[in-house]
Design goal:
The protein is built from three helices and eight strands, in the order H-E-E-E-E-E-H-E-E-H-E. By secondary structure, it is mainly beta. Strands 1, 2, 3, 4, 5, 6, 7 and 8 form an eight-stranded mixed β-sheet that branches. Helix 3 links the parallel strand 7 and strand 8. It is globular, with a radius of gyration of 17 Å. It starts with a helix and ends in a 5-residue tail after the last strand. The model has no long low-confidence stretch (mean pLDDT 81).
């Protein structure tokens, strides 16, 4: 048995050595929507609501009826992000990544009810815990927003974004890096 395998194996006292010590700074997009409780963020594709002011914990989507049959999702004995699964909280290494540019340029269809028009916002996210390295970034067990970058120059920040930034203690910035 390799030493790192030993460290990652669950211990009798329930602790597992994390894959990353500290946080990885990554980039991603969210959808900003509103309901009777106020503004909230959701993932662009997955039916995942980011609870304001809280750490998001990755869950396996294989059991979610909305994702049943989706390629790459497999129920596993290990918590997300699994080796053979696509679950986890995604973040890319560069704000110039082509997926981010696409998301920022296209308004999503509301997957959840929203009392106001939905809008895409991008920013920086801290990832930690179990982490899987991908071609363009990472999938992580835990995440929280650390900065929101409003990409529509000359337009006011969307309603509710400042409130959400304050809940997470995140920075609110104008402009998108590299533009």
């Amino acid at each position: 048995m390799r030493f790192l395998d030993f460290l990652r194996r669950p211990k009798p006292w329930g602790h597992v050595v994390p894959d990353v010590v500290g946080e990885i700074s990554a980039w991603r997009c969210w959808v900003l929507a509103h309901d009777e409780r106020g503004p909230y963020l959701r993932s662009y594709y997955a039916p995942v609501r980011w609870p304001p002011g809280e750490v998001l914990v990755a869950t396996c989507l294989a059991a979610d009826p909305a994702f049943r049959g989706m390629a790459g999702l497999h129920e596993q004995d290990e918590p997300p992000p699994g080796k053979a699964c696509r679950c986890g909280i995604y973040g890319v290494a560069s704000p110039e990544h082509h997926d981010l540019r696409y998301y920022l340029a296209h308004e999503p269809k509301p997957a959840y009810p929203s009392t106001r028009p939905v809008v895409v916002v991008g920013g920086e996210v801290a990832l930690w815990g179990r982490v899987r390295v991908g071609e363009h970034g990472w999938r992580a067990q835990y995440a929280r927003p650390v900065a929101f970058h409003w990409h529509r120059e000359g337009e006011a920040f969307p309603e509710g974004l400042a409130e959400l930034a304050a809940a997470w203690g995140a920075v609110l910035a104008e402009g998108w890096p590299g533009r």
